[in-house]
Amino acid sequence: MKKLFIILFLTTLITSACKKDVPPVVVTPTLTADEQARDYLYTKMNSNYFWYNLMPVVVKENYPDPYKLLDAMEYKKLDRWSFVETYAQFQAQNSGGFVGHGISLGLDPSKNVRIAQIYSNSPLYSKGVRRGWIVKKLNGTDLAPIFIANDGTAYSNLIGASQAGITNTFLFQTPAGKDSTITSTKASFTLNTVIIADTLHLKSGITGHLVFDEFIPPSNQELMTAFSYFSQNNIKDLIVDLRYNGGGDISVLTNLASYIAGAPKFNTPFLKLTFNDKNTASNKTYNFNSVAYPLSLTKLIVITTRGTASASEDLINGLRPILDVKCFGDTTNGKPVGMVGVQYKTDYMFFPITFSLVNSADFGDFYKGITPEKYVIDDITKDWNNRNESCLKEAIYYLEHGSVSAKAFSVNHQPSIRFSEGTEKISNAYILNK
Question: Is the CATH number of domain 99-190 2.30.42.10?
Fold first, then answer.
């Protein structure tokens, strides 16, 4: 064996000596489309991310796609919101596009599953279904155990993919106490973001009531219609229900705030945006806009939950220096930061946190959320305009009496378990045009 080893070794030396010096060939591995997107996100995170100097150190090649890379790079002490989605998802969401039955379901304190949200263009709405209806079974399966277990996966498997043409059978119990079996086929439709815009004739005067679901560009026309109606009815006060509103486009936010602030505040500061120290040139102040139907309010009441986030919170924070704003419901999400959407080809949209926001009084530290004047349960047993719905009832009481009611609610109550269909709305995101 020893002789054989020597011969092989010498042969290798002789062969090597006979060769000319040839520079080594460097083979650059071909990156997949996801790896290229990952590398682009890595660059953007190092330049644009608000907490770029606090990010964990990562080797980007260890992550196969931008989803996993973002999760690894987030500054998790504060960042609960940065996300990645496909460009097609972003386009659909930003235009209000939705595929499904148009509902979200929640668990009430009596362990009944109920309709918590339903859109007026949805298939089930046209069949008469409304918020507050009990949903006993879905495709023959009892829903209550799934919600009590907080098993979102089981619910998603049961209701199926967000695909037009999929049919589900619901066993409802109507407000009259009667069972009703309804078969519904998922369809593609446009969400309405103004769920309700009506008036309440109270002892304190005529009050506007706006249930607003999402800040997306199509909302501007819906808001114009709503505030035209409020203006025609000479409302004195306004109740804005933002309990499921997770945010959206900052230009829509500014428009809504401008309707509420009124003409005297046009072109005065509303919100200030501050980017990281690499992007100070992007720092910007948003002023109240000139809008067609400004109000002249004495009070603003906002109904909130832990799902009230981002642009919704900044509506509250941005109006507080100029208006008496009271909140009822639950503590909000706690997101005083925002993101500029970054498009990667026609493949992805990246939404890393890129700026912080403060109001005209330079306040914006509400990472723990905005606390309400009084904790009130999200009462999904009743429709939005039912005056006995707990949050609306408390808001009305405050307007008519100038104080909260004597009825107490625990500050430690758990938020309602709520599942939406597979197609999600834009959540906790600002979309700026840069």
Answer: yes
